[in-house]
Design brief:
20 strands
Length: 387
């Protein structure tokens, strides 16, 4: 196995990131799915080589936290046995594929995801580390709010389209051509100057005025967007959430015992295949109106070395005060790793205290600065009632 590398914006299994609680090892399930044996095995590895905590990320991956340098290689061996490891770090970094969890047996979703992942593994594309693809080919689109640069979707008539993120319309394609067109779109992004210094996103590239070539432009409108998924029962199984996107190893093992597989999502939830009733598990969110669903919080201090404050304690205290339909984002720094977009209320920690942003993100100008966590907990109206 390769030596531990503790650098890069997006961690992987072969290239983990050093955090305040040890190495953070990101596992990218193939096809966005863990079978029951893989899920249970992953729980065992998190308990044995990590601190027992597992993050669900906004890219539908899992992160084992608290891994020691000495434990990394044995952990990789365990992931290999589970069939969850790429052959090398470069292949791993290219395999950023989101898959809608609402597929049905026999539809195109799984085969498209497998073909796309294989094609990426065999390609020589030098894509930015955050560049990704979405297989969102249901009757309604479920992944529109998730991060992806090339989107495989359907038009209202059910035909497949490939669309650049940021473009209103996509190109109609035959089933046999989908993956080739998706990779051609990614290749155009690179050759047209979208990737600079290892960074770059499709939407920003297009909004900067770069025009898609005629061969990739298309005139097909994507189908409608589904309502935001919440914990509950679906035809495919039971969708459950994790408070602040974090599970214990015991909770993951418990969920693995309920069904044939777990489908990952970018909403820090998992879909337990085949369940017709919600699972009984104290450590997961099963109610659609749970206040914790209104709050996003990164790991915070001391778990993250970049964080200026503990985010989880403050987020938990504020969750019951957040109105239905509103969203609170508590970030340990101004990078906004847990949520890059706007929220009704954003609290970003700095060395001087928390900055407050209303209806914006960590990159927007605060309306108040230097708020203390204790003061906010004592009087939540300081932020909840701010306008």
């Amino acid at each position: 196995m390769s030596a531990v590398a503790v650098k890069g914006w997006c961690p992987g299994a072969l290239r983990p990131m050093l955090s305040g609680d040890g190495l953070m090892v990101r596992v990218r399930p193939f096809g966005g799915r863990l079978d029951a044996g893989q899920a249970a095995g992953l729980a065992d590895l998190a308990e044995c080589y990590g601190n027992g905590l597992i993050d669900l990320t906004s890219r539908a991956n899992l992160q084992i936290r608290g891994v020691s340098h000495d434990g990394h290689l044995p952990l990789l061996d365990g992931l290999t046995l589970l069939g969850l490891l790429d052959p090398d770090a470069e292949t791993e970094s290219r395999r950023n594929v989101l898959v809608t969890p609402f597929w049905r047996a026999g539809d195109d979703t799984c085969s498209l995801a497998i073909e796309l992942e294989r094609a990426l593994a065999n390609s020589s594309l030098d894509l930015p580390t955050k560049f990704g693809f979405a297989v969102d080919d249901g009757k309604e689109r479920a992944l529109t709010t998730a991060s992806a640069d090339v989107r495989i979707e359907r038009d209202p008539a059910g035909g497949l389209i490939v669309r650049a993120d940021g473009a209103e319309l996509g190109r109609s394609v035959a089933r046999t051509d989908v993956v080739d067109v998706a990779l051609a779109l990614a290749g155009w992004f690179v050759t047209s100057g979208g990737a600079k210094g290892g960074r770059g996103r499709m939407m920003a590239h297009i909004r900067a005025g770069t025009r898609l070539p005629e061969a990739l432009r298309g005139h097909a409108r994507p189908t409608s967007v589904t309502v935001a998924p919440l914990p509950g029962l679906y035809p495919q199984g039971a969708l459950v959430g994790a408070t602040f996107g974090q599970l214990t190893h015991s909770a993951l093992r418990h969920l693995a015992g309920y069904g044939q597989a777990l489908r990952m999502t970018p909403w820090r939830m998992m879909l337990v295949e085949g369940l017709h009733e919600m699972p009984r598990c104290d450590d997961v969110i099963t109610q659609a109106d749970d206040p914790a669903l209104r709050v996003i919080a990164c790991s915070g201090a001391p778990r993250c070395r970049e964080a200026h404050a503990d985010t989880r304690e403050l987020a938990a205290a504020l969750a019951p005060h957040i109105a239905a339909g509103a969203r609170l984002h508590v970030s340990g720094c101004t990078k906004g790793c847990a949520h890059s977009g706007p929220a009704s209320i954003t609290l970003a920690a700095t060395s001087e205290g928390f900055d407050l942003v209303r209806d914006g993100s960590t990159r927007d100008t605060p309306i108040r600065r230097g708020l203390r966590s204790a003061s906010i907990v004592k009087d939540p109206s300081i932020v909840v009632g701010a306008h």
